[in-house]
Design brief:
The structure is a homodimer of 437-residue chains. With 437 residues, chain A is an alpha/beta fold. Chain A has 3 domains: 152 residues, Rossmann fold, CATH 3.40.50.720; 153 residues, Dihydrodipicolinate Reductase, domain 2 (2-Layer Sandwich); 89 residues, Alpha-Beta Plaits, CATH 3.30.70.260. The first copy, chain A, is built from 14 helices and 17 strands. In chain A, strands 7, 8, 9, 10, 11, 12, 13, 14, 15, 16 and 17 form an 11-stranded mixed sheet that branches. A 6-stranded parallel sheet of chain A has the order 3-2-1-4-5-6, with helices on both faces. Chain A starts with 6 loop residues before the first strand and ends with a strand. The model of chain A has no long low-confidence stretch (mean pLDDT 88). The interface between A and B is large, with 61 and 61 residues. Strand 12 of chain A pairs antiparallel with strand 12 of chain B, so a sheet runs across the interface. Chains A, B: Its EC number is 1.1.1.3. Chains A, B: Its cofactor is a metal cation. Chains A, B: It catalyses: L-homoserine + NADP(+) = L-aspartate 4-semialdehyde + NADPH + H(+). Chains A, B: Pathway: Amino-acid biosynthesis; L-methionine biosynthesis via de novo pathway; L-homoserine from L-aspartate: step 3/3; Amino-acid biosynthesis; L-threonine biosynthesis; L-threonine from L-aspartate: step 3/5. Chains A, B: GO terms for molecular function: homoserine dehydrogenase activity.
Amino acid sequence: MSSNSNISVGLLGLGTVGSGVINLIENHQEELVHELGCGVNVKGVLVRNLDKTRDVNINPEYLTTNPEDVLNNPEIDVVIEVMGGIEEARNHILKAFAAKKHVVTANKDLIALHGAELHQAASENKCDLLYEASVAGGIPILRGLSDGLVADKIQKVMGIVNGTTNYILTKMDDEGVPYDDALKEAQELGFAEADPTADVEGLDAARKMAILARLAFSTPVDLNDVEVSGISDLELTDFQYGKKLGFTMKLIGIANFDNNQVEVSVQPVFLKSDHPLANVKNEYNAVYVNGEAVGETMFYGPGAGSLPTATAVMSDVVSVIKNKLLGVNGHRFTKPRFEKVLKKPENRYGQFYFRLHVKDEVGAFTTISSLFNQLNISFERILQAPIKPENRNELAEVIVVTHETSLDKFKKVLEDLQNVEVVEEVKSYFRIEGDVE
Amino acid sequence: MSSNSNISVGLLGLGTVGSGVINLIENHQEELVHELGCGVNVKGVLVRNLDKTRDVNINPEYLTTNPEDVLNNPEIDVVIEVMGGIEEARNHILKAFAAKKHVVTANKDLIALHGAELHQAASENKCDLLYEASVAGGIPILRGLSDGLVADKIQKVMGIVNGTTNYILTKMDDEGVPYDDALKEAQELGFAEADPTADVEGLDAARKMAILARLAFSTPVDLNDVEVSGISDLELTDFQYGKKLGFTMKLIGIANFDNNQVEVSVQPVFLKSDHPLANVKNEYNAVYVNGEAVGETMFYGPGAGSLPTATAVMSDVVSVIKNKLLGVNGHRFTKPRFEKVLKKPENRYGQFYFRLHVKDEVGAFTTISSLFNQLNISFERILQAPIKPENRNELAEVIVVTHETSLDKFKKVLEDLQNVEVVEEVKSYFRIEGDVE
């Protein structure tokens, strides 16, 4: 056995995740020694209330209400932030870096908002900042993107990274439940919050995709670089057409990287039904990764939960300690290797679905198809469907599925469709994904 | 940057995987330095023919036909075995350990056959023996079982770990192609070998499951502990009943560990169609892991291929070097922590499907159900179906789906069914899996 001396860690916060971390450390000393050549001790825990009864085996003298007892404790090498919130957590972490302590956090909102600043501070102090648990707690995805595939170049990351919306979309798609009812059901089951905005408008997913893209491609993507649209306007009609066409509706985060140019978006997407992500149902999350060497892989798991999150935190703690013992702190997840260059619309490609309400008159169809022809966008399929009785006022519903085209052409044809007289309304449009590459 | 001095590795074999490893090392020096604090050099490659033209950038003076130049080269710390075969590879690896070199191998057959001996030799010499690439090359699963979930206790591993059989079963299930035709198609596409025995009889999957179980549970499972049955006798009739019942037929490796008792099997299983593994199609592989802390996760990816394999080999090389620098070689993947105790049939549980040909006479049904009742096995469903015209000689086809019962009761009722007079024949029986735990 190696003679590395024990490493001490401190916690900010002792809720369910914090308690889980302490229990994991306590119950896995032997495994930790196997991995690290040393044990791990908890030497300080910041709490709000010293007198609260806690279901965790911790020496009470290590509990404190004074952050300095953790952040400036010379015995502590690694600070584990599991308190949540933004400003206080941010200040504590910056102080920890100033005191040359490494930081592990599960705080997604903090990383998405202040990731660049925190990375900068970590880097200046040659410290590690790790946050596996901040994205899809139960999926060891960040580790997959770094350790496991250390020698690979990631080209594409596609993810279902929000359990609330995936639950709602599963209900809509599998059972034909309208959006409002599906949301209500999700709220009753505890899968959606009373104010579901951050979830259903795609913001939570966008935060996670910014983090994933930054790590997968080693380029400093932040939340503002992510194009976001949510699911609150989705109509069952499109789900029904999707079924006919072999598509499943999912809120998908897509991050692409080629020629050192990056694009990141979160949007409702029609996934071809045989794509592995199409079968990820209910509150589950999954991240699909396409690497130059490894090809397609996917990680699937629960999106959240305090035990998965604690496990992910512990993984990061182990990595930080390894890095410390190896003398390589301050690199991984920290310094982006590529400048950020956002991909221009003319270099972004996709297949698209349009649902149009079209005036039922001679030549209408020719007019529409010529709009696409002018831009060299070819059709994969066109459906013309009867409109429901109440709307049978001389309108037809037309579904257009294009072949792959650039995003600028898509935007142009969308504008043209909205301006041409025979089109009464562009009811909806979605990106289509899912060809196996 | 740390001042660890460079680490040198040697290769046994320079086929597509070996060349891939050299290219990855060459093209990722910067990332390797970020991870390790040092670079990685190739200082010896055992080949059969020095004069062959090779598509790889290696100093010709490092190529050799003499194994000693790698195995006893004092500069080399890590030996990478990518030559394949059994006896020669085994002897080389044992020599490498004797010379205190760590070993990374992609050789599944070797590990399944001689894993115990090689682990023993590694352990005695305080060396690492890693073989991520030997199981499902494209899925970073062994890493998931160790690093990523370092602090978790794995309870169950279920895997589709053979691409050939998964391709055949997908054809049979999705398109109703009979076994022989599906096999032929797989052979034509290069997914099955001319002699497909090792794949279709489940041996290849059994080797991988033995390796996965050993790692997941840290107990010395070997190939002989795996109960194996293959897919060559499967009939489309059962696939059709499966569809009606909401099941998909898959060749599944199942490894369970509770109360420190292990069971491992490979067999055709009826998976409930909403289980994530049920949607893993064609030649893809996936491994589903249930951990105490993390809950359900799944890893999905290509089962093989030289680039994924080379990437997995590189992951292991990075781990070995980290362990060396940390002074913790000789532990991970090496010393099992639990004695092997195989689970007894009375402690093994499952749901089962039976297809019976039953004499169409008064009381037959009562006789059958009383066999189950006597053993306290309850029914989930019973179907009685018309038998096809050509067999309509007073026989009925009866499908029984049980609730969960122990394996010894299953075996007893199977024996009873085979011996009772009203049952003309037990046509087939399968384990059912897929309740989300």
